[in-house]
Request: fold
Amino acid sequence: MSKVRLGIVGVGIIGSFHIDNIKNLSNCTLTAICDVDPAALERNKDKVDGLATFNTHEALLDSGLVDGVIIATPHYFHVPIAMDAIKRGIHVLVEKPIAVQKSQAEEFVKLCKENPHIVASAMFCLRRMPANMKLKQLIDSGELGTIRRINWIITNWFRTQKYYDSGTWRATWSGEGGGVLLNQCPHQLDLMQWFFGMPNKITASVFFGKYHDIEVEDEVSAIFEYPDGKTAMFVTSTGEAPGTNRLEIAAERGKVILENGEIYFYRNETEMSDFCKNSEVMMAMPTVWDIKVPISTLNYPSHRDIIENFADAISNGTALYAPAVEGINSLELANAMLMSGTLQHSVELPIDSAKFDDILNNFIKNSAKKG
Reply:
């Protein structure tokens, strides 16, 4: 296979962006696009010579023109379209989140595992940002020692009311299925589980329409508890300007801060637990080395990197940067926070998919805005 033939289902803002990404790659070519909105097809049909257009995903999948598809539709359609593609032997790259609810993701993951010859990737492009790759390396190498506490404040997702009013599906339970946890934060939630693994308990406070005229959540504060004893605080909002994006890790060998694409490691000369037990001084601290961790200065086109890797996996069996089956983890974190905030008590992980479905269906049933 010289070049992988790709199609895009959904050519709104992000789908149109992927057209340009594919045009800049040498291992794949865009052969078809699909959208239910004729205007979207009209805007994009001349961006690639000979591009076929379809108004249903089934027609695109049955056309024989694609080896793989990028799914960039509203959230509820991700799993049904991906499953239709897999059943036809077509590879899939799914935008985040892979699903709205864990039960839907479970169906998708099951089908992926039943079809290991199908490449299924997810658009978790932040895994390809230099600072995130370096931090993952530091954690996995053991350089930080045992991690004790994590704090991630990610509130620079500020959105205006105009943003939420730009589509009838936005910020509705029936159209989008959630707010900041499902739309803005899947990238950070993916990094949380990629860096630190999955917690076994979550306690969250969730606020619905606190800053906007919307029915879904626009502010969340949560505590994660992990099987090994570490804890994490996760705070997010679309109602703070200018907001903050700061990840802080407290570990045995020091403190790491990731902010503004830079990593600072305040490294203890002696592990803190050893120093605590053995120091002869009542109010001393270990000697600390201030280190600015060197990071690649290359300007990674992270979305394009994921697409290129997807095509390489189809052609050459290259390992995926972001396997779609891992998308269930970040989704479970989002579902668990929403469940905890709604029920107003802690929830154990893994969550009961059916109980979450009941909560979501109740939101949809009582929705004042239908997506």
User: Anything to note?
Assistant: The chain has a mean pLDDT of 96. Residues 327-343 form the longest helix (17 residues).
